[in-house]
Amino acid sequence: MSESMLKKRDWARQARRALNPTQVVTKLATVPGWALSGDGEDVAIEKTFTFANYYETISFVNAVAFIANAQDHHPKLTVQYGSCVVRFNTHDVKGLSDTDFECAAQVDALLPEGSV
């Protein structure tokens, strides 16, 4: 995936705002497999991706890093031999924003549908 394929975002030039609970539930329905985690300022969306081996896991992690860099929005990653948990939230709005859901959809697009 080349960086030109991603719509590069400069979030410093766009005001981000926290989504209200209704908006979060609506957006969550657009990213299958992602679930709410935490609460209050620590609320996030997260998903566990599984792989056959460590090499596939790290290849995925590198692809996620590429997306995070292009979007200037960096998830928490928990990496193990055959899995990676990706967790997005927006610290500066103390909650979830559109950014989290846009990045989650881009991470999902890395893998063929039904592969996770």
Secondary structure blueprint with pairings:
Layout: H1 21-28, E1 35-37, E2 44-50, H2 54-71, E3 76-80, E4 83-88, H3 98-108
Count of helices? 3
Shape: globular
Beta-strand segment tally: 4
**Low confidence ranges:** none
Strand order of the largest sheet: 1-2-4-3
Helix content: 25-40%
Order of helices and strands: HEEHEEH
Task: Describe the protein in words.
- It is a single chain.
- It is built from three helices and four strands; from the N terminus they run αββαββα.
- It is an alpha+beta fold.
- It has a four-stranded antiparallel β-sheet with strand order 1-2-4-3, with helices on one face.
- A hairpin with a 2-residue loop joins strand 3 (76-80) and strand 4.
- The longest helix is centred in the middle third of the chain and has 18 residues, at 54-71.
- The chain is globular and about 40 Å long.
Structure summarized in a few sentences:
This protein has 116 residues and is α+β, with helices and mostly antiparallel strands.
Descriptive tags:
alpha+beta; globular; 32% helix; 116 residues
